[in-house]
Design brief:
Largest sheet: none
Number of domains: 1
Strand content: under 5%
Number of helices: 4
Radius of gyration: 12 Å
């Protein structure tokens, strides 16, 4: 049986479908932004890129939990 995706990644298929770009695009965009805190990043995605609040929250939440302590993106 396949394990059900939970958390922010649950929204990834609908984000890709609605905005027409892969999740990696959005994560790279977030990681390259000078903003580092959750709410400012969510507000930025909403204002500058037209992302809905729930989708922006999911993307930012995922991106921030996959950064290391100095704020840079973790490498797999």
């Amino acid at each position: 049986m396949t394990e059900r995706v939970q958390g922010p990644a649950y929204y990834f298929p609908s984000i890709e479908k609605k905005y027409g770009k892969p999740i990696d695009y959005w994560l790279e965009l977030i990681n390259s932004c000078h903003l580092t805190r959750h709410k400012p990043l969510v507000d930025w995605l909403k204002a500058e890129h037209g992302i809905g609040h729930g989708h922006a929250t999911a993307l930012v939440g995922y991106a921030l939990t996959h950064r290391d302590v100095d704020g840079t993106e973790l490498k797999s």
